[in-house]
Amino acid sequence: MKARYLTVAGVLLLLFAIGFSACFNPREGYAPEQPIAFSHQIHSGENEIACGYCHVSPGEGPHSSVPSINTCMNCHGQVATDRPEIQKLTQYWEDGTPIEWVKVHDMPDHVKFSHSPHIQRGIDCAECHGQVNRMDKVEVTNPFNMGWCVDCHREPEHNAPIDCVTCHY
Ligand code: HEC
Ligand code: HEC
Ligand code: HEC
Ligand code: HEC
Ligand code: HEC
């Protein structure tokens, strides 16, 4: 009897925790300020730098990544060194302090997402992230909730798995 109550309490606690974490999962329209005013519009748009130059092989591992200052300094050792934001960047570089970029997209811990199966199937970055090359500030342009993931998996042309363990630990 007692064990049963404990189980019920445990389940309620778990649902509460999941609901709580869901509140903090960034939603459509979220576009936080960053420590340096980095613009994809300038880099990927006007200067046509490929996504993969900075986001190393998102198709090969589970996670994409945000570049280190070394990548920036390949260019900004020479380019636009008179601008205040570049002087800020150079200061981080000289101090050896990593830039604490604010995460824009962030799945709750109970979800397993991996870039690789998507990229391998030829799904473009823009299908999920929108036209990043036109953004001065990265913005979440899709709901990034369960319904959004499952709806796309169900589309006949994708026919991707929709059983719970595909996406949950
Ligand atoms: C010159 C380097 C550079 C290039 C090229 C670049 N990015 Fe980025 N990207 C960054 C940096 C730095 C951040 C972190 C700061 C920010 O969010 O603006 C970032 C952040 C992101 C994020 C948000 C990550 C998060 O926290 O959720 C996405 C999505 C993204 N980039 C997609 C792309 C796509 C798609 C392309 C190609 C169209 C691209 N990037 C090209 C440097 C780059
Ligand atoms: C492949 C070369 C290249 C790389 C790598 C690169 N940038 Fe740039 N960046 C440029 C160019 C070109 C401009 C435009 C300069 C101009 O307006 O004359 C620019 C402009 C900028 C500006 C705007 C400067 C201003 O105020 O006008 C910022 C800020 C900036 N970059 C930050 C970064 C950061 C942070 C990284 C690393 C994540 C990075 N860049 C990586 C080439 C690069
Ligand atoms: C099927 C949808 C989808 C596609 C396609 C996709 N992404 Fe993502 N991306 C996501 C999700 C979901 C997250 C959040 C992952 C997390 O929080 O664990 C994310 C996170 C990111 C991040 C933040 C770092 C990280 O891995 O958490 C970057 C950078 C990024 N994506 C870049 C890209 C680039 C570049 C491409 C194209 C090569 C791309 N993405 C294609 C859905 C996608
Ligand atoms: C634009 C359509 C699209 C969206 C949006 C999408 N997926 Fe997918 N997903 C696919 C396709 C296509 C595959 C590849 C299926 C295959 O290879 O059989 C896939 C595969 C996967 C796999 C690997 C499945 C396996 O084979 O084990 C996981 C895990 C996954 N997706 C999770 C997610 C999650 C979590 C989200 C939401 C954050 C998401 N997906 C959003 C289309 C999508
Ligand atoms: C294609 C990927 C995918 C599949 C399949 C999937 N989920 Fe989810 N699920 C997610 C994502 C992503 C979230 C996070 C949503 C958010 O934070 O808004 C989530 C959230 C949840 C939550 C938390 C409540 C909420 O809406 O945030 C529960 C409970 C859940 N899923 C149960 C299930 C069950 C049960 C199944 C099987 C019937 C299942 N999921 C199948 C991707 C998936």
Explained architecture:
- With 169 residues, this protein is mainly alpha-helical.
- It has a domain of 92 residues.
- It binds heme C (5 copies).
- The site of one heme C has 19 residues, from helix 6 and helix 7.
Features:
169 residues; 9 helices; 46% helix; 0% strand; elongated; binds heme C
Write the layout of secondary structure elements.
Layout (H helix, E strand, L loop, with lengths): L1 H22 L16 H7 L4 H4 L14 H8 L7 H12 L19 H6 L4 H5 L16 H9 L9 H4 L2
Helix pairs in contact: 4-5
Bound molecules: heme C (5 copies).
Brief description of this entry?
The chain has 169 residues and is mostly helical.
Based on secondary structure, the structural category is: mainly alpha
Compute the CA-based radius of gyration: 20 Å
The largest sheet is: none
**Topology as H/E string?**
HHHHHHHHH
**What percent of residues adopt helix (DSSP H or I)?**
40-55%
- Portion in strands: under 5%
State the low-pLDDT regions, or none: none
Bound molecules: heme C
Distance between the termini: 29 Å
Anisotropy-based shape: elongated
Would you count the extended β strands for me?
0
Mean of all residue-level pLDDT scores:
86
Put simply, the count of helices is 9
